[in-house]
Amino acid sequence: MNKSRHSLLPAVILSGIILCVSIDHAPAQEIALTPIEANEVARGYRADALKLKPVVNDKNETLGRINDFIFGKDGNIYAVLAVGDYTGLSDHLIAVPFRSLKLDDRSGNIVLSGTSRDALQKLPIYVSQR
Fold first, then answer.
1. CATH for 62
2. What's the whole-model pTM score?
3. Is residue 103 part of a domain?
4. DSSP secondary structure string, the chain?
């Protein structure tokens, strides 16, 4: 029985070496920002600066506030909005695509056009998976 184990050992080791050598490693990808992109990034907003900011509609009615951000595996970014009572006790969390928000520099508001607080409260509740 020991002979059969020892006779297979060289074959197993050789197979492992062949597999390791034949694995094709992907080349490293360089990431660089051009000066234009770097300037655009510098003019942007930090997530912490937007968190807890009020969100209003196009009629300047307060809808809620930004509670968090979700970075989807699909590359999309979502803003989690707390809609409801400002005591924080009965907030209704919803997720909306970040691209649907407008960051208005003049007013300092974050605008979600074409909706109301009532409409947002009818959306499904966002529940974090992690």
1. 2.30.30.240
2. 0.67
3. yes
4. -HHHHHHHHHHHHHHHHHHHHHPPPPPPPP----HHHHHHHHTS--HHHHTT-EEE-TT--EEEEEEEEEE-TTS-EEEEEEES-TTSSS-EEEEEEGGG-EE-TTT--EE-TT--HHHHHTSPPP----
